[in-house]
Amino acid sequence: MRETLEIRTDHKYVEVAERIETLIEKKVLKVGDKLLSVRALSKEQGISLSTAFQAYYFLESKGLIEARPQSGYYVKFSREYTRDLPKTSEPFDDATPVSVDDMINSVYVDLNAEKILNFSTGAPAVELLPTAKLNKAVMHVLRDSKTSCLHYEHIQGNVLLRKQIARQAFNWGGAPSEDDIIVTAGTVEALSLCVKAITKPGDAIAIESPTYFAIFQVMESHGLKVVEIPTNPLTGIDLDYLEKAIPRFDIKACLFVNNFNNPLGSCMPDENKKRLVDMLAKKEIPLIEDDIYGELYFGKTRPKTCKTYDKKGLVLHCASFSKSLAPGYRIGWTIPGRFKEKILRLKRMHTVSTNTLTQAAVANFLSNGRFELHLRHLRKALHTQSLRYIQAVSDLFPEDACVTRPQGGFTLWIEMNAKINAFKLHKRALKHNIGIAPGQIFSSQGKFENCFRISYGQPWSSRIEQGLSTLGKLMKDYK
Amino acid sequence: MRETLEIRTDHKYVEVAERIETLIEKKVLKVGDKLLSVRALSKEQGISLSTAFQAYYFLESKGLIEARPQSGYYVKFSREYTRDLPKTSEPFDDATPVSVDDMINSVYVDLNAEKILNFSTGAPAVELLPTAKLNKAVMHVLRDSKTSCLHYEHIQGNVLLRKQIARQAFNWGGAPSEDDIIVTAGTVEALSLCVKAITKPGDAIAIESPTYFAIFQVMESHGLKVVEIPTNPLTGIDLDYLEKAIPRFDIKACLFVNNFNNPLGSCMPDENKKRLVDMLAKKEIPLIEDDIYGELYFGKTRPKTCKTYDKKGLVLHCASFSKSLAPGYRIGWTIPGRFKEKILRLKRMHTVSTNTLTQAAVANFLSNGRFELHLRHLRKALHTQSLRYIQAVSDLFPEDACVTRPQGGFTLWIEMNAKINAFKLHKRALKHNIGIAPGQIFSSQGKFENCFRISYGQPWSSRIEQGLSTLGKLMKDYK
């Protein structure tokens, strides 16, 4: 078993680096400013030379400062100096039956081929996950289980796991009991069961635009019409538009990824969440909330969820450990409020109980208090990677390309010159063994033709730099 | 980790016991006949005293002979002396929308409560499963996997596992390649995806009667009407009835458990399977075949499947390891013929990929050639248990109760006097901490009011004898 690389975040150098970062953000230190020498920093802060060096190295890895040979360290990166944000998506103003394109198959056909540098995979790199400790958890539960985890688990899920999920909910202001939670085979099963529970074929359901294509596929499989709500890359869906769209399209339900929407990385401000919940509660419209990325925040605190403000049991909260801990374990859950009994019945009809062994292993891992520590490392790593990737995009992509500034999660959304077709770009990139997710698959109407999504789940490397450089060239040479 | 109890089936005593069993079956030895003394048997067969004793002990544990104190061994059991078979189910002659009763919830609410002697659980006892070797397989794959099995598996499933499933199919006369197989989260997911792929809401689908209630629930969730086909406790569905029912009810698809139907334990003769496949092929009607119990046969050879005779790709074969190896691992599959692409799409919409770790563990276990040996032990144990339970039912239940003679699987179906309501019996039994599955939940119309199902998955014990005795008393005292 391999140990994962553990970045100690409680070290002195991180603290020093963070204070310098604040100065850069507040523009006390500006791009191009020379920083103190390592020796001077060490003296000024009363820290060792090695700690001072580590602080600079850390800031450099984040793309915030750069070392110039024989000269010293300089401020390099400022949010203000990167590319523009993509625009808020345009309303399409229609409720359309979903027909998911064969494009998705084309993009995901060779997902696991090793030769491909895959920017389209939606999961953090395995080296960012606590493999050794999860393996130990598996062995521990195998040893302790009277049945070696071969028995059928309760349909609602392992009770210890549900207790841990309930405890975790405290972080977003929730206070569910274990009895309010239903464990599922990942978030997609949770979403599918929730959609099935609250809609009937032909109903219109509101979603973000752009949105993760798996969500369209869930809609398609249930015969629903979708209404794509314009979505801002920073603040999420346009609530005023939604309010008018509800009566206009007779919207029966909503499904939103409010925290770090995939692909935009937007985060709906908590006050908007409250307004959204109140607006829907008045009309008795249920809201499915996909919070799969909620724990992967880069700010000081975890954003709240819509469930936090739910008084009527109308919010069906869905999430999983697939993006934060163990993709292949297939453990998700829903906290479906007043729809619990219906969803339990549906689960019995579709997959019955969820995997006994991996449920027990995750419960064991969480009950040892290891999840919080792991999440701190993961957030730090993803934040650093996001900055590094954004910097590279700014350096390597054509000047008119815009890029998002995700506040969490692990996806970047690139808006290119209108003449570039992202699906063609995807085909060309694939010839260079590079995988991207073209914008067309993030809309039911094939919108976002000149956009694409890349994931920064993989730690920075020269192979990635080379890949982004090739992508930039393909865009520049596009005809 | 615990080692499982391994019954060596290649021992001399088993061979001797089997020859005696044949004599009993052929009525050369009749009930009440005295057997040779242990010493005489030892001499006659040229075996040791201990082998002779073991042979008698083995036959005794099967309920075939009994030891009378100071007298010797006597033939006890003969199939002819047990109860009558239940009748072939009556046709209901209608296509009805499914509405699954709250009864199911009532029966399965406390499935895992330890104090309950649960005859309603549909799985073999954990002590019949190769726990230690499966645990080793888990550890092996964790050690060997570059990602510790944390990555998302291919949506179609682990390729090594699919190869093993393809190899296993040889036993029923199939020759699929790994590319024809889709791995699912247990058989219920496979059935649900297949039903979704070949029907639309409102369609009529033919099923057995009685049938496993989870199958009704799948139908209900897809908005289908079911046509219950009369089913013989030995030979399965009435093909003549089905042939007439197809045009009459405009049947669009069939779903049958041909091998050891749950609850009847019936096995459709292979020539009937061929006739069924040919009949449906002419009309281009797809057949979903649930072969989850197929490996648990008590006869000399594995029964064929309908897929064996499928030339047009119209048979969607479904099965799993849940009843034969590892219930909690949630690994099933489908070999869906011409519907493969459609089912892959649906799987992506509903649960995406299946658990990476348990897929790899099962693949490892199978590729070590351990499955066949385990199955031989399991079949032997279940066969012995079936005979023991049938004997006890004959001894302890009222004289007018009929019982099935399963040829595989692990369920018995009891038909009681018409005045006894099985759901009431279930309620009364529960007060004595005994769980049974009342007949009403095996029909969409609440038929089979005077029937119930018990599982003989648990090895014989005095607790089980006591439980069956209590059940018998409740039936005798029923008012």
Automatic annotation (TrEMBL), chains A, B:
GO terms for molecular function: transaminase activity. Keywords: Aminotransferase, DNA-binding, Pyridoxal phosphate, Transcription, Transcription regulation, Transferase. Residues 10-78 form the HTH gntR-type domain. It holds the Pfam family GntR. The keyword Transcription applies. Gene3D superfamilies: Aspartate Aminotransferase, domain 1 (3.90.1150.10), Type I PLP-dependent aspartate aminotransferase-like (Major domain) (3.40.640.10), Winged helix-like DNA-binding domain superfamily/Winged helix DNA-binding domain (1.10.10.10). Transmembrane segments: none annotated. It comes from the Bacteria. PANTHER family: HTH-TYPE TRANSCRIPTIONAL REGULATORY PROTEIN GABR. In the C-terminal section; belongs to the class-I pyridoxal-phosphate-dependent aminotransferase family. This is PLP-dependent aminotransferase family protein. It comes from Chryseosolibacter indicus.
